[in-house]
Design goal:
15 helices; Rossmann fold; five-stranded parallel beta sheet; alpha/beta
């Protein structure tokens, strides 16, 4: 897909086009994706209602764009590299062909147990390959996935299941995170005492612990996969059909389900990933987030796979078994783009410099930060020690609500200032508002 911005001049020209002719601009970008039926109109919007429709009446399935269309040229290319919590455990590598097969099998298991287009499915799982596979399997059959971070309590999980009226829960027996061992299935069992909508629980094996399996409700994924085929046609979706719900606690404490739909989300996830990280065909890209957050949805799963990228998943934490774990993993897998949170950077700064200086980090080309704003001290530490003062830092500003990065540097193609996010991406016109919603135009 050749919508990469290649210089600061290219950015300025592209940005100008996106502002002067947004419909033409996004139509050109969307043409790089595979549609079952093209759109009647690029965008219809009314900010007062508010009501925004992207790519009106177009039909697609996002997983055909993430998987099927890569099989001919990239079938044997690595899609996912999974690095386990314990560095002594075996790494899992899945090619695009293998990932496609596993997604189809999981989708067939869902269908076998009655899951249909439009059903809400809650995922409460550790960062294992099955989490990415299950996410894509839901999208494959047109079910709406709601991924809940597997660090939340049973009552937080129950709130999210009930709010979405989820019919299925996809989970695992347990999880390993650093030195912790967490009984994931037991937390699900506790949550489901308060949930009437759930009909089936599908359990992945991770820890091989004995867990309670309720007859008629709970099934093991590995047993179910033996009973289904390896192909599953993708459900045709309207561009404005729901793709996923993701809960954000926001400022109220009560979780609010943010909704993203299929077409517009796909185009922006694919476009923003390629340009912010300046991904090249043979690169290995690593975002250290959890798929339970929007960062994981867009920049571990959908954005990279839409571009035929090799994306890494990490089960562990930055300080286990030592504070050098991130850097050891970067060297081990030859990571080219590394995307993490300022919180993690500050935590690692506290351990001194030796744990970074022990590794070469020669493969790194672009560093990224996401979450809260990065302070100048952490930015400089990251730039000088991790990036050896040669890797641009993309300081990405966005939200669960936006679904993708809105303000950021673009690899080496934009100026950098410590703790300043950068330029708006093409198509984004930021304004500053005061507390009453009036635009601030002065300094």
């Amino acid at each position: 897909m050749d919508f990469r911005i290649n210089s600061i001049e290219d950015y300025k020209k592209t940005y100008q086009k996106s502002v002067e002719d947004p419909e033409g601009f996004w139509a050109d970008i969307a043409d790089h994706f595979q549609w079952r039926k093209k759109w009647d109109k690029v965008v219809k919007w009314n900010f007062d209602e508010p009501n925004i429709n992207w790519f009106t009446n177009a039909k697609l399935n996002i997983t055909e764009n993430c998987l099927d269309r890569h099989l001919k040229e990239r079938g044997n290319k690595l899609a996912i590299i999974w690095e386990p919590n314990d560095p002594k455990e075996r790494v899992v590598r899945l090619t695009y062909r293998e990932l496609h097969e596993k997604v189809c099998q999981y989708a067939n298991v869902l269908k076998k147990h009655g899951a249909q287009k439009g059903d809400r499915i809650a995922l409460y799982m550790p960062m294992i390959p099955d989490l990415a596979i299950a996410t894509l399997a839901c999208a494959r059959i047109g079910a709406v996935h709601s991924v809940v971070f597997a660090g939340f309590s049973a009552s937080a999980l129950a709130d999210r299941i009930n709010d979405a009226s989820a019919k299925f829960v996809l989970t695992s027996d347990g999880l390993f995170r650093g030195t912790k061992e967490i009984p994931v299935k037991r937390i699900v069992d506790e949550a489901l005492k308060q949930c009437d909508s759930v009909e089936k629980v599908i359990v992945s094996e991770r820890t091989n612990w004995d867990v309670n399996m309720e007859e008629g409700r709970d099934v093991w994924l590995h047993e179910e996969i033996e009973t289904v085929g390896k192909t599953c046609p993708a459900e045709e979706m309207d561009t404005e059909d729901l793709l996923f719900i993701l809960y954000t606690s926001g400022s109220t404490g009560k979780p609010k389900g943010v909704v993203h739909t299929c077409g517009g989300y796909m185009v922006y996830a694919g476009y923003s990933f390629k340009n912010v990280f300046q991904y090249q065909e043979s690169d290995v890209y690593w975002c250290t987030a959890d798929i339970g957050w929007i960062t994981g949805h867009t920049y571990i799963v959908y954005g990279p796979l839409l571009n035929g990228a090799t994306t890494m998943m990490f089960e562990g934490i930055p300080t286990f078994p030592s504070p050098g774990r991130f850097w050891q993993v970067c060297d081990k897998h030859g990571v080219n783009q590394f995307y993490t949170a300022p919180t993690a950077i500050r935590a690692l700064m506290a351990h001194g410099e030796d744990h970074v200086l022990s590794y070469s980090l020669d493969s790194l080309k672009v560093l990224g930060t996401v979450g809260e704003p990065i302070n100048e001290e952490a930015w400089n530490w990251y730039y000088q020690l991790v990036g050896k003062s040669k890797c641009p830092i993309v300081d990405t500003w966005w939200q669960t609500e936006t679904g993708g990065i809105m303000i950021s540097g673009l690899g080496a193609h934009s100026p950098m200032r410590a703790s300043h996010a950068g330029y708006p991406l093409p198509g984004i016109q930021p304004v500053l508002l005061d507390a009453d919603g009036n635009e601030i135009t002065e300094n």
